[in-house]
């Protein structure tokens, strides 16, 4: 009971925790939404322009796949977020806070998510694309009416994986100014040796991640008619 | 009516040229079912891709009801493709769409009104006998049911030609028969021209009016079923009315000959007449009798003892309208 009483009186929990949760959720929602909006078209373009794709364009494929996606994916997120601080200041006007963190979170997860989208599209049997073409679909119709609906279970599973990774990255971004649960754990749990805050933070992050995973799995099953 | 004239397709593999289609010509009349049979590698898949314009032929023409398809501009490509409805080996239905939505797909592409799509889809599902599965997803259907949906979908845009690429190769024998019956039924009701590409002779026997044998990119034999069967030395005839490939061992000396006859002759007592006329013992080694292309055909392998005048027997049989091929003396 003592532990619980001191927990409810701990300012790290009573004052800082609610704000930290909200900041983490802000980073999760905005960065995930931005990643979906940029990553799905990018994944489609990667799939279409790849050699043997529906509209192979070597130079687009080389630039997108080789340079941007592969190189960005090779940079560890901890380094990427630091390197992007000047860019973030230019875009958002500040380098700190959850909104600023969304810039590096989005840039860090888009290449990875685009690859997941591309893989989901590649899993569609080529006979279905042939069938769509034979029936007189334009390329745009093939993408909108066949490729994306058919790949939706894979894309939905990819979104789930991506959101979980954004939560993980957001903790890292939090330490260098993003705020949220990552900074709470660092400031209280690490620097002040407040193990209570540390444990509570971990429990809350686990709950958020499990909720995201369960929702994602449920949505994936809903759209999967295979 | 579909007419293919001197269709050629040459692929480049590095510096090597591969001739996949080497001057294919054929014509199928409206309301007929034509089979194109060939082993894998004969050029069947290339032919399908050229007919559906997924690949452009190197030269030659494909015309459907007088409209040239092979040479259309890219702008007209999409509407040209709708002249030919296609049925695939593995149906290739869209898993994310229900049966009704799959059949509606080609109509959605044309921008057809919703109410009109609904009517058309329910007519088509009725035609293929799947009305009660309208809201089922493909994963809930059997292989034969999926193929029925595939046929309904192929017919949605009222094509002039139904192109079936190995439509029954993934199905069991009973379902194969059902699908072939459906294709014949569709042909009768819609008077559509049907082209079936297959490697199964049974499909040709059961469904086709005429057949072409495709080999190394060329059509080496073709014609109405009753004509190709009647050619005793033809490969299609041997494939349609097969006799055991091996000659029986331990036969007494004599002559082995194959006989092939059709129609009214097939029910004549050919063998006993022969035995009486020449006063010989005729030994039947093998035979098959089948209804093909609307006529009955018999293919027999007989053994005649030493001392029989083979020329006289051959002349007698030929005079009765029986094709004779002397195998071994």
From TrEMBL, chain A:
Family: Belongs to the binding-protein-dependent transport system permease family.
Stretches assigned to the ABC transmembrane type-1 domain: 21-216
Subcellular location: Cell membrane
Xref: PROSITE patterns: ABC_TM1
CDD domains per the UniProt record, alphabetical: TM_PBP2 (cd06261)
Organism encoding this protein: Zhihengliuella salsuginis
Protein name per Swiss-Prot or TrEMBL: Metal ABC transporter permease
Keywords: Cell membrane, Membrane, Transmembrane, Transmembrane helix, Transport
TM annotation in the entry: 20-48, 60-84, 90-114, 154-177, 197-219
Membrane topology: Multi-pass membrane protein
Tagged with keyword Transmembrane: yes
Automatic annotation (TrEMBL), chain B:
Ranges of residues in domain ABC transporter: 2-241
Record SUPFAM superfamilies: ACT-like, P-loop containing nucleoside triphosphate hydrolases
Coiled-coil regions, chain positions: none
SMART domains: AAA, NIL
Keywords of the record: Amino-acid transport, ATP-binding, Cell membrane, Membrane, Nucleotide-binding, Translocase, Transport
GO molecular function, one term: ATP binding
Pfam family, one: ABC_tran
InterPro entries: AAA+_ATPase (IPR003593), ABC_transporter-like_ATP-bd (IPR003439), ABC_transporter-like_CS (IPR017871), ACT-like_dom_sf (IPR045865), MetN_ABC (IPR041701), MetN_ABC_transporter-like (IPR050086), NIL_domain (IPR018449), P-loop_NTPase (IPR027417)
Cell membrane among keywords: yes
Protein name: Methionine import ATP-binding protein MetN
Gene name for this UniProt entry: metN
């Amino acid at each position: 009971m003592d532990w619980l009483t001191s927990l409810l009186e701990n300012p790290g929990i009573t004052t800082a925790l609610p704000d930290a949760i909200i900041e983490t959720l802000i980073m999760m929602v905005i960065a995930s939404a931005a990643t979906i909006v940029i990553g799905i078209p990018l994944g489609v373009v990667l799939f279409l322009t790849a050699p043997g794709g529906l509209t192979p364009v070597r130079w687009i494929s080389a630039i997108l796949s080789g340079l941007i996606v592969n190189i960005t994916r090779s940079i560890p997120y901890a380094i990427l977020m630091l390197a992007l601080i000047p860019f973030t200041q230019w875009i958002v006007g500040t380098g700190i806070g959850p909104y600023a963190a969304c810039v590096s979170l989005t840039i860090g997860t888009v290449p990875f998510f685009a690859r997941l989208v591309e893989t989901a599209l590649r899993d569609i049997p080529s006979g279905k694309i042939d069938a769509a073409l034979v029936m007189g679909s334009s390329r745009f119709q093939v993408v909108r009416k066949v490729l994306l609906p058919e790949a939706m279970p894979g894309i939905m599973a990819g979104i789930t994986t991506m959101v979980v990774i954004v939560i993980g990255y957001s903790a890292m971004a939090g330490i260098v100014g993003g705020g949220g649960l990552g900074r709470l754990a660092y400031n209280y749990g690490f620097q002040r040796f407040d193990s209570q805050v540390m444990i509570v933070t971990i429990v809350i992050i686990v709950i958020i991640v499990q909720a995201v995973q369960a929702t994602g799995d449920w949505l994936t099953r809903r759209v999967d008619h295979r | 009516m579909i007419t293919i004239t001197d269709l050629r397709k040459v692929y480049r593999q590095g510096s090597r040229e591969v001739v996949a289609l080497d001057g294919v010509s054929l014509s199928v009349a409206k309301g007929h079912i034509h089979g194109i049979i060939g082993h894998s590698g004969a050029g069947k898949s290339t032919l399908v891709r050229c007919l559906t314009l997924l690949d452009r032929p190197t030269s030659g023409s494909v015309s459907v009801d007088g409209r040239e398809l092979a040479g259309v501009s890219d702008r007209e490509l999409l509407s040209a493709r709708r002249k030919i409805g296609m049925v695939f080996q593995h149906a290739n239905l869209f898993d994310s769409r229900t049966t009704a939505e799959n059949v509606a797909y080609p109509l959605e592409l044309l921008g057809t009104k919703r109410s009109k799509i609904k009517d058309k889809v329910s007519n088509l599902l009725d035609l293929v006998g799947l009305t009660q599965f309208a809201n089922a997803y493909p994963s809930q259907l059997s292989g034969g049911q999926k193929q029925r949906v595939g046929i309904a979908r192929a017919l949605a845009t009222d094509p002039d030609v139904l192109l079936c690429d190995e439509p029954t190769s993934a199905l069991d024998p009973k379902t194969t028969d059902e699908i072939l019956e459906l294709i014949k039924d569709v042909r009768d009701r819609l008077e559509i021209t049907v082209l079936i590409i297959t490697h199964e002779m049974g499909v040709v026997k059961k469904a086709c009016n005429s057949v072409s044998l495709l080999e190394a990119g060329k059509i080496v034999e073709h014609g109405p079923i009753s004509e190709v069967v009647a050619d005793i030395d033809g490969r299609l005839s041997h494939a349609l009315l097969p006799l055991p490939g091996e000659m029986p061992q331990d036969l007494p000396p004599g002559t082995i000959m194959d006989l092939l006859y059709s129609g009214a002759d097939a029910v004549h007592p050919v063998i006993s007449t022969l035995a009486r006329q020449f006063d010989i013992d005729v030994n039947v080694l093998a035979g098959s009798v089948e209804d093909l292309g609307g006529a009955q055909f018999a293919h027999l392998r007989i053994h005649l003892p030493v001392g029989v005048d083979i020329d006289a027997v051959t002349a007698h049989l030929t005079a009765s309208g029986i094709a004779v091929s002397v195998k071994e003396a």
